[in-house]
Amino acid sequence: MYQANEKRYSEMTYNRCGKSGLLLSAMSLGMWHNFGSAATYANMAEMVTTAFDLGITHFDLANNYGPVPGSAEENMGRILRRELRPYRDELIISTKAGYEMWPGPYGDHGSRKYLIASLDQSLRRMGLEYVDIFYHHRPDPDTPMEETAAALDQIVRSGKALYVGVSNYTPEQTAKMAGLMRALGTPLTVHQPRYNMLDREFFEGLEETLAKEGMGSVCFCPLAQGLLTDRYLHGIPADSRAASASPFLSENRITEELLAKVRALAEIARNRGQTLAQMATVWDLRNSLTSVILGASRASQITENVAALQNRKFSQDELDEIDRILKA
Fold first, then answer.
1. Paired residues of 218 in beta bridges
2. Which of 121, 126, 101, 94 is nearest to 30 (CA)?
3. 210-242: b (≥16 Cβ within 10 Å) or e
4. Any idea which fold 14-226+275-314 has?
5. Distance (Å, rounded) from C-alpha 36 to C-alpha 44?
6. pLDDT more than 70, % of the chain
7. Which is nearest to 236 in space by CA: 217, 220, 219, 259?
8. Is omega for the bond preceding 67 within 30 degrees of 0, making it cis?
């Protein structure tokens, strides 16, 4: 029977999510990859319990994470039942809906029908009465935003989620949704944007809006699908994501110009006593971000990245050099 590390809260940093009462661990564990139907239970459970033992309390899912869609939530449900049942009130479980999940006109986008039905399915898969955070995963140009807002408000009032947020919304869309939610009496608590050293513009354009609206931010892809690790320093490994025809990272993106930047960043990381992955993760946290979502295929990667919190400070010279490399 799993028993959590008694010192799990001693080293992790917890940041307030905007102006809400919610504190999130500075690092979260994402289940986009490696928690689907092809994954082994022992490895998944080890990753989740290792994360929790290190003070990570936020576990991030979506209805379509897998493959197959829904299987990551099913596996998280198994882990919650078998390993983490005594600790439910110490966990922040988030899920999302907004991308295609089932056939037909009601399994995608942002209608009240889709969002509420999807969350009901997610709760059944995980065996939960509620999730802590429910996100609308992407804007829907064909559904009035007022309808999406009303669905999120209904979800909170029904007790099926404690907080709600959005992901992939532009600053203008975020401000509009936050205003609609405020008028309904249910605050929009958090935004989940893509953000990393190589992909900065979206979040940096969003920061002012989030501050004005009192929202937190939880970023995904801090390692740019593995580009900001040691994995590609010497080319494209045969067993890598880029070599596997992944729709998220293609070989033609990995140019010699990009690799030169990654190698220069890795040299700064070495001088800091960190791996490139560690430095890239805490670089995200140097500003107003609430939490960074870690992806992992094994528990040792989680341990490595959490260790980066021991050296979060950057000198101005380091920041200037990183900017020079990235803007070259």
1. 291
2. 94
3. beebebbbbbbbbbbbbbbbebbeeeeeeebbb
4. TIM Barrel (3.20.20)
5. 9
6. 95
7. 259
8. yes
pLDDT tens-place string over residues 92-148: 999 999 999 999 999 999 999 999 999 999 999 999 999 999 999 999 999 999 999
* Beta-carbon count within 10 A of 33 CB: 18
Q: Which helix (H) or strand (E) holds 267?
A: helix 256-271
Residue in this structure with the two tokens 């493959």, named with its chain if needed: 67
How many Å apart are CA 224 and CA 276, to the nearest integer? 12
Query: What number of CA atoms fall less than 13 Å from residue 206's CA on the CB side?
Result: 29
The answer on pLDDT for 241 being more than 60 is: no
Measured CA to CA in angstroms, residue 270 lies from 74, 153, 277, 280 at distances of 39, 47, 11, 12
According to the model, what pLDDT value does residue 201 have? 84
Mean per-residue pLDDT, 69-84? 98
Asked whether 213 and 178 are in contact (CB, 8 A), the reply is: yes
Q: Which neighbouring-strand residues pair with 24?
A: 15
d(C-alpha 14, C-alpha 328), whole Å: 35
Lowest mean pLDDT among 63-72, 73-82, 239-248: 239-248
Question: What is the distance of C-alpha 226 from the center of its chain?
Answer: 15
Domain ranges of the chain: 14-226+275-314
Contact 153, 185 (CB under 8 A): yes
CA-closest candidate to residue 287, choices 25, 59, 26: 26
Length of the chain: 328
Q: What is the mean pLDDT of residues 71-92?
A: 98
Closest CA to 115 of 145, 144, 152, 146: 152
